[in-house]
Amino acid sequence: TAGITQAPTSQILAAGRSMTLRCTQDMRHNAMYWYRQDLGLGLRLIHYSNTAGTTGKGEVPDGYSVSRANTDDFPLTLASAVPSQTSVYFCASSEQSYNSPLHFGNGTRLTVT
Amino acid sequence: GENVEQHPSTLSVQEGDSAVIKCTYSDSASNYFPWYKQELGKRPQLIIDIRSNVGEKKDQRIAVTLNKTAKHFSLHITETQPEDSAVYFCAPLRGSARQLTFGSGTQLTVLP
Q1: For chain A, is the Cβ count within 10 Å smaller at the N or the C terminus?
Q2: How far A81 CA lies from chain B's nearest CA (Å)?
Q3: pLDDT of residue B94
C-alpha cells in the first residue's frame, strides 16, 4: 500500500537516552515534515525538508535533528530525550513544498520517563 | 509568526443538522487554506482546501468559504452524520515561510 510508514508505533524512553524515529514514503514526494501533537495544541512543525538534501527548522526544533539523504527517508533524532518531548509524532509528505495536501503517517507515540 | 485561531473549540450538533467551524489568521500573504479531519487515534487527513483566487469550494456535504479581506475561512458540513464526529483542524499557509500553521482544533460531536 502506497503512503508513509513510521516506526516504531510506540516507544517508552528513559530521559537522557537518544532515539531515532523513522519515516519512509513511497510516493516520490519532494517535501517531508515532522510534527508533534500535544493535547490542546494541535500539530506543531518540528523540522521540514523541501527536497532531498535540504532541511529547515519549524516552530519547535529544539532538541530534535533531521536528515534527508534521499527522497524517501526522513528520520527524526532526539539526541537526549526529556519528559517534555512526550508526544505523538507524525511524519508527513507533500508533492510540493507548498500549496499541496499533506499525507500523514500513522504516528509514533513516544513517552519519555 | 502566523496567529491562527479556531472557533469553537467544541461543537455538538444533532444528526442531520449543519456545523460551521471558523478559522482566523493573521498573515495577509496566506494563499492556501486547507481543512484536515482527525478521527480518534488516527492520522489527520485532508478533507477540503481552497486557494486565494476563489471564495468558495464545495465537495458534496462539505464546503469551505474564504474571506481574505477579513482574514478568515470557514468549514461548513451539512446533513451531519455520526461518522463526521472527529477533530477538525484548519491550517493556513504562512506566506512568508511557506509552511502550514495548524489551528488548535475543533472537536465535533454528532449526536444520533
Answers
A1: N
A2: 24
A3: 79
Which residue of chain A has the CA closest to B94?
A98
- Supply A1's cell numbers: 500500500
Determine, for residues A102 and B102 on separate chains, whether the beta-carbon distance falls below 8 Å: no
Contact (CB, 8 A) for A2 and A29: no
In a mutational test of the B interface, the residue from A34, A97, A98 whose CB has the highest number of chain B CBs within 10 Å is: A98
Enumerate residues 6+ apart whose C-beta is below 8 A from A73: A22, A23, A24
A27: Cβ–Cβ under 8 A, 6 or more apart, which residues?
A2, A3, A4, A93, A95, A103
Nearest chain B Cα distance for residue A85, angstroms: 18
pLDDT at B53: 81
Identify the H or E element spanning A107: none
Give the chain A residue nearest B51 (alpha carbons): A99
Look up residue A69 and give its DSSP letter.
Answer: S
pLDDT for A7-46, tens place per residue? Answer: 999 999 999 999 999 999 999 999 999 999 998 778 999 9
Considering only CA atoms, which of B56, B60, B91, B92 is closest in space to residue B77? B60
B45 CA to chain A: closest CA distance, Å?
7
Nearest to B93 among A44, A90, A99 (CB): A99
Look over chain A and give the mean of its residue pLDDT values, rounded to a whole number. Answer: 94
Q: How far apart are CA A111 and CA B100, in angstroms?
A: 26
Instruction: Please check the confidence at residue B98 and state whether its pLDDT lies above 90.
Output: no
Q: Please report residues of A whose CB lies closer than 8 A to that of B105.
A: 42
